[in-house]
Amino acid sequence: MAHLEAALPDGPVASSLSQGSRAPRIARQPLLLAVGSSDGSQLAAGLSGLHVRLPRCLTCGIAAVAGTATMHRRRERSSRDGQRRPDARGRREGREGREGARRGRYVEHRKPASMDWGGVKVTGPAAEWLQSQIEMAGGEFEPSPIQQEAMSRIYDGESCCLHAPTGTGKTLCFLLPLLQRFSEEAARTPVRGLRFLILVPTAALQLQTAALARALLGPGKAENVTLLRRDADNTREPSNIVVATPRQIRDLLDEPRTQPLWLRALGQLDWVVVDEADKLVNKWKLMQRREAIREGRVLPAVALLKEIELQTTKAGRRDEWQLVGATATLSRRTFRNMKYSAGIDLALIRVPGSVTPKVEQQVSGGQYGDGTTSWPAKLRHRLRVPVPFRFPKVMTVAAKTIYELEAERVLVVLATTGYRGRAPTSEYGRSVVLSQLRFRLEDMEHERRRIEVISISEAVEAAAELWSSEGSRQRVRGPSQSQVIVASAQEIRGIHLDFIDAVVLIGDPDSISDYLHAAGRTCRYQPGSPEPEEGIVVSIVPQMTATKIWKWSSLSGFKVVEVPLRRHIKTLEPAERLLTARQKQAAAELDEALQGFDEDDLSDWDVGEPTPPPSVWS
């Protein structure tokens, strides 16, 4: 029970209010309300010309009186100033305009963009991202053949497997339609928990895929994308979109604290993507598969797809989730493993590459017997064989090759082997090769610019910042310096780096799949180009590996040219000996010392008979 007094011009009016009583109607005249409670606190408000209806609850009534008084004071202040305060939207736009002015840029307030691209109606931040690509390309940014063929089918909910050459935009092909569906369904019925799972083989590809997904979702929704890490707190409910490796998910399922949460999350999935499917579901060779069968081991991706099928069946959603796979090297075993592990009938969507060249050693019509390959049409293959294949000589040949390429951006891929192989990891490690190339290339006098040598992690982090709509406008060639990026063959799987002009492969690639994915980092669709640009791949390999590459060329349908060390790698003309800056300085000092020297002066020297060697030497 509390006491309420109202001071009116005719005199005070008292009323006792309880929680169940109705509030009296107060006339529209100046009054002063004073509310006192049992603890002695008091609230007073001066009101003029207002109609106040007190609710049943006394606490709500006090809040209503205070709120009404505050609004009244603001209205009187605005009327005195002759202007009205802007609403929330106006305040937000004004704040953005002031911040933009401070940053030196113009903030344009426009409605969300909408456009049709690849057979899918794209709206919101994804359309703005596409518009930025179109502006950067000068008005020409058309979908690639695989995007034109598959995007509408993925948007309609068809489970499929994409097979197309490297650099044709397979990641954007499945991300854009699936994220568009996610945004549309989230706008209608927001749902918590995991809905979209993207499986990738490496941490570098995990970072790049998450960056592109956040750029397509835009601010406000980008927080729905989680980059799964083992050192993070995974005991909470996962976000809507998770990018992870299969091993990370399997570890969470094996942990008792996180197992119930993630089993329930897998049962609620709507979309699952397996990127670089050949690396995830068909990684083992014949002997490894036989040993795994004897020991009862299964690949993490295969086990995870079976678990998703089981959990969705338990949740009554057996046929309600969609599976999409993507790779540039799709074999029949890879396709079968995905299909039967998930229990989903997959459709094959394939776009061919270049036409099989007519050579005498050609023994097949390609994988599908149609005379086409999975190689880009403008990719050139070169081969160099250092004899003997030792680390110092290989590094010298690699530095000479990079110098002769005169490319603005070169990717060095290390195809290492075990300790008994021809290119052991202990000898051809990334850090060792990076330091050697940095020392040798910095010692060479480049006529155009300085050569910078960095690691793949630095390049991927820098590229991830350029996926947003604002950063994509900076994805242009810079005239600052040449750049050499060093990476292992496992790290560059599925990675896209802008403007890679050449690839230098060092070591012993394990299979033709590894060779294709390494060579496919060049000759790709680039920002501002309607078709893939030209590229070259140079393999610096031992003699046995060179023979293996020759066999791959006849089976896979590409032409390889071996270039001797004394020939120029691009022009194939006889090349002069390449000297470092120190060697050039030593040669100049020697020439200067020999300028005043005459060979006739040697005749005055009495050398005498040579001393015979000791008998032990003979």
UniProtKB/TrEMBL annotation:
Catalytic activity: ATP + H2O = ADP + phosphate + H(+)
Compositionally biased residues, Acidic residues: 590-607
EC number: 3.6.4.13
SUPFAM superfamilies for this protein: P-loop containing nucleoside triphosphate hydrolases
Source species, domain of life: Eukaryota
Any single Pfam family the record assigns to this protein: DEAD
EC category: hydrolase
An example molecular function term from Gene Ontology annotations: RNA helicase activity
Region Disordered, annotated ranges: 1-22, 70-108, 590-618
Chain ranges of the Helicase ATP-binding domain: 151-348
Ranges of Basic and acidic residues composition bias in the record: 78-108
Keywords for this protein: ATP-binding, Helicase, Hydrolase, Nucleotide-binding, RNA-binding
Family membership: Belongs to the DEAD box helicase family.
Function: RNA helicase.
Free-text note on domains in this protein's UniProt record: The Q motif is unique to and characteristic of the DEAD box family of RNA helicases and controls ATP binding and hydrolysis.
Protein name per its UniProtKB record: ATP-dependent RNA helicase
Classification of source organism: Eukaryota, Sar, Alveolata, Dinophyceae, Suessiales
Name of the gene this protein is made from: dhh1
